[in-house]
Amino acid sequence: MESQGIAVVAVGGNALIKDKAHQTVQDQFNCANDTMKHIVDMIEKGWDVVVTHGNGPQVGFILRRSELARHELHEIPLDYCGADTQGAIGYMFQNSLQNEFNRRGMDKHAATVVTQTVVDKDDPAFQNPTKPIGSFMDESEATRRAENEGWAVVEDAGRGWRRVVPSPIPTRIVEADVIDTLVHSGVTVVGVGGGGIPVVEDGNGQIKGVEAVIDKDFSSALMAANIKADLFIISTAVEKVALNFNTPDEVQLDQMTVAEAKQYVKEGHFAPGSMLPKIQAIIKFFEQGGKKALITDPEHISEALEGKTGTWILP
User: Fold this and answer.
1) Which CATH class is domain 5-117+169-314?
2) Of these residues, 37, 108, 216, 240, which one is catalytic?
3) How many C-beta neighbours within 10 Å does residue 2 have?
4) What distance in Å separates the CA atoms of residue 84 and residue 91, rounded to the nearest whole number?
5) Which letter does DSSP use for residue 169 in this model?
6) CB 9 within 8 A of CB 49
7) Is 216 a catalytic residue?
8) How confident is the model at residue 296 (pLDDT cuts 50, 70, 90)?
9) Which is it for strands 110-112 and 188-190: parallel, antiparallel or unpaired?
10) Are 132 and 168 in contact (CB under 8 A)?
11) SS3 track for 218-257
12) Which one of the listed residues 131, 160, 209, 262 is annotated catalytic?
């Protein structure tokens, strides 16, 4: 089997939770199982793969459990929630990958690396927390938590109050060399889950966790650049990227250059919190030496790699 190179595949949140009626651990595992089959299709065609993933809903579940049980047990800090979800989702992916390898008679192995991502302690995001996490609260509870625990809280569109945390830009993946070594040894790696556990570094090289969340597509792009990946795939809920999305003038794109992507961003074609960060992450990947990128949904990865669908982004 001829090697196709190294691919980093960023798996979207929809790969684990399809809708509100399917949120249990077993439901998530079933989704993971389906998505990993498409990843193994890639591996069977000669790709060495690093799988990254989101963890927003899962962190929300842990925080909610923690809040409900706080009269009985200590609450869980946000960086530990990230670590917990990396382990649990990594287990789902590893299990699904290994079973699929065995089913197809492939001599392959999967491993999860609990990953830390360095952010700049002076990142402006720390002065301007914007990412809502955890449960809704009434105003008195929000005020109490703000005073007692230093939380930043906001009123969220008439639905109640929520905690907001910073979303700083990732600057370095601590375990990048470990992941690089593993993937070059033929191991399928699950890493940089949820964008990685956010840590800051002091002047002596000591790192410590901080209460923040990192965009997983930005961290995945940084990871892809660090290991000089030949391909960066963002697997999401749509088969192709569209201009004028959800309007009568919608145009689906087969490919675009980085310059065109920047122009479309400037023209406001991509929604914040949806397609925009994905396109921005891909632009960053190219700015750090990336070669080619692809956006499509999990079930179309194989066809997209054959050039039949998906949106390709080229230099």
Assistant:
1) alpha beta
2) 216
3) 5
4) 11
5) P
6) yes
7) yes
8) very high
9) parallel
10) no
11) HHHHHHHHHCCCCEEEEECCCCCCEECCCCCCCEECCEEE
12) 131
Look up 308 and say whether it is catalytic. Answer: no
Q: How far apart are alpha carbons 315 and 305 in whole angstroms?
A: 17
Give 10-43 pLDDT, tens digit per residue.
998 667 888 888 999 999 999 999 999 999 999 9
Q: pLDDT tens, 142-184?
A: 999 999 988 999 997 778 998 899 999 999 999 999 999 999 9
Both structure tokens of 229:
């990946």
Residue 228 is among the residues annotated as catalytic for this protein: no
CB atoms near residue 62 (< 10 Å): 19
Paired tokens of 235:
């697997």
For the whole model, what pTM was predicted?
0.94
In the chain, which ranges are continuous DSSP H helix? Answer: 25-44, 56-68, 78-103, 139-149, 176-184, 216-226, 258-266, 275-287, 301-305
Residues 129 and 135: their CA atoms lie apart, in Å, by 16
Tens digits of per-residue pLDDT, 96-143?
999 999 999 999 999 999 999 999 999 999 999 988 887 788 999 999
Nearest Cα neighbor of 88 from 26, 157, 34, 130 is 26
Q: Is 208 a catalytic residue?
A: no
The question of whether 244 is a catalytic residue gets the answer no
Q: Which of 107, 93, 91 is nearest to 44 (CA)?
A: 107
Q: What whole-number distance in Å separates Cα of residue 189 and Cα of residue 111? A: 5
**Neighbour tally for 121: CB within 10 Å:** 13
The domains of the chain are located at 5-117+169-314, 129-165
In whole angstroms, give the CA distance from residue 116 to residue 152.
Answer: 24
